[in-house]
Amino acid sequence: MADAVATSPEAEDDAIRLLSGTQKCAILMLLLGEDEASEIMKNLSPREVQQLGSAMYSVTEVDQRTVNVVLDEFLSIIKAQTSVGLGADAYIRRMLVKALGEDKAGSVLTRITPSSSAKGIEILQWMDARSIAEMIEGEHPQIIGLIVAHLDYAVAADVLILLPENIQHAVLHRIATLDSVQPEAIEQLERVMQLQFQANTSLRASKIGGIKAAAKIMNFTQAAQEGRIMKDLFKLDKDLMTAIQENMFVFDNLLAVDDKNLGVLMRSIEPTDLAIALKGADERLRDKILGCMSQRAAAAIIDEMEAKGPMRVTEVQEAQKRIVAMARKLSDAGTMVLAGRGEDYV
């Protein structure tokens, strides 16, 4: 009887291969002991703590063979590492510049280096959205905008929706028009935070907010809530609303969606809309979408694209908008995951 339920080596290998990087880290955390693991947790962001903590629950039943494999992999990695921590500042800066370029790297570094953010603002990252909203709702929209712009985009979206409806569009307007915030403004913001946290810090100019930040925050809101806020913002500043909308999740962003979720979307849209939308799509996106379909379905879409001949750009754009609207609807319902919208996944 025991042999009948025993797990085969092949099944164990499959289980190991399916472990995510976060789950492997979780196994190591469980092996370290409470004191050492807690020291590591202190150096993680709120989202990383949540993700790693959740992963630790998911690996509590792993077998000894899996633990050994994870340990071997870990040891092989650290054997290649030397002088960890020495010259870390310079290393991180060079790495980000190579990956993102000078301008983007500079923007990121102003957010992540230890001296770039106030202690009071840092504490906000550990608060839930409702507590933040209740704490700041009586402040001027400019102050609220500064605070919300400092938050993780998903948390910022939740806070925005929990604020009084009559100021939500004004707060989004402030976020979208922010750029380089000078020390004086941050000092004013910190004084607000000190009422709650009594924190002091050395400050410097920080680049936060802007249209792209506002667009990312709106990407995390439900479609119905987005529509109401954008409608109110339209009355306040039509051009700004349009600019934010143009930077939100668009058809080309589907290139970042994995095949599984893209397949869910393809089964939920009209083939005619897809044929029209793909006429104006980037070649890589077109190949990706057709590649996640059956050969027969892909061939049918290609035939329909050819049969339709030249089309107006506005018709193509409208079809793409309908597909994006369906994607957001599925995302809101939890049926699919859109990269860049909603929670991060590992």
Quick description:
The protein is built from 22 helices and 2 strands. With 346 residues, it is an all-alpha fold.
Class inferred from helices and paired strands: mainly alpha
Instruction: Count up the domains.
Output: 4
Q: Topology as H/E string?
A: HHHHHHHHHHHHHEHEHHHHHHHH
CATH topology of the largest domain: Annexin V, domain 1
Portion in helices = 55-70%
**Quaternary:** single chain
CATH class descriptor of the largest domain: Mainly Alpha
Rough shape? globular
Rg over C-alpha atoms, rounded to the nearest angstrom: 24 Å
How much of the sequence is in beta strands?
under 5%
Give average pLDDT, whole number. 76
CATH superfamily of the largest domain: Flagellar motor switch protein FliG, alpha-alpha superhelical domain
Give your account of this protein's structure.
The chain has 4 domains: about 80 residues, no CATH class; about 30 residues, no CATH class; about 130 residues, Orthogonal Bundle (Annexin V, domain 1); about 80 residues, Orthogonal Bundle (Annexin V, domain 1), CATH 1.10.220.30. The longest helix has 20 residues. Helix 2 packs across helix 6 and helix 13 crosses helix 16. A two-stranded antiparallel ribbon has the order 1-2. The chain has about 350 residues and is mainly α. The chain has 22 helices and 2 strands.
